[in-house]
């Protein structure tokens, strides 16, 4: 998001300042990771585990043991190729920024839109009540029921993602030369898809700025997916 914000900045001096500040912020994150009390404590615990013993298998241990002798092994007993520090930091940054902030923002906007539209809220409650009646034991609330029997809830998630796409752009690097819209794009170029422009384009969406979850319930609708 920092790069996207810098890209929109029209003042060159301000833009340069923002890039510098972004780099400082990222470096401060690295420092925080290295000096976090929790992480340091876990590292010490890992060091104390004999090499012939497996550490607790969780996300934190997996990331912290990548470049260590106590590295978690695969089921066939072969060691996994180590990652360098830059790759580890990339995983950490993506985990916190892409895996936490995006989901948190989406949930907040879902609550906002549902509360703002009473009719949508009522339909959502009716769907939940029909799938999960009060007499249903909690043990019978399964993943399959959550995923396959809540079409209106799913439509609300998609419609919210369309209106409040996070992130609003999706940069991708081309591994080979390609042609897009009549333009030849060289290998190694960065192509940026502007999801906001796609999701709010009047040629593709009826009443694009309005919150209408029902648009995702029709199989006839030309666009039933959201760029994410």
UniProtKB/TrEMBL annotation:
<dbReference type="Pfam" id="PF00067">
    <property type="entry name" value="p450"/>
</dbReference>
<keyword id="KW-1133">Transmembrane helix</keyword>
<keyword id="KW-0472">Membrane</keyword>
<dbReference type="InterPro" id="IPR001128">
    <property type="entry name" value="Cyt_P450"/>
</dbReference>
<feature type="transmembrane region" description="Helical">
    <location>
        <begin position="88"/>
        <end position="114"/>
    </location>
</feature>
<keyword id="KW-0812">Transmembrane</keyword>
<dbReference type="GO" id="GO:0005506">
    <property type="term" value="F:iron ion binding"/>
</dbReference>
<dbReference type="InterPro" id="IPR036396">
    <property type="entry name" value="Cyt_P450_sf"/>
</dbReference>
<protein>
    <submittedName>
        <fullName>1852_t:CDS:1</fullName>
    </submittedName>
</protein>
<dbReference type="GO" id="GO:0020037">
    <property type="term" value="F:heme binding"/>
</dbReference>
<dbReference type="GO" id="GO:0016705">
    <property type="term" value="F:oxidoreductase activity, acting on paired donors, with incorporation or reduction of molecular oxygen"/>
</dbReference>
<dbReference type="GO" id="GO:0004497">
    <property type="term" value="F:monooxygenase activity"/>
</dbReference>
<dbReference type="InterPro" id="IPR002401">
    <property type="entry name" value="Cyt_P450_E_grp-I"/>
</dbReference>
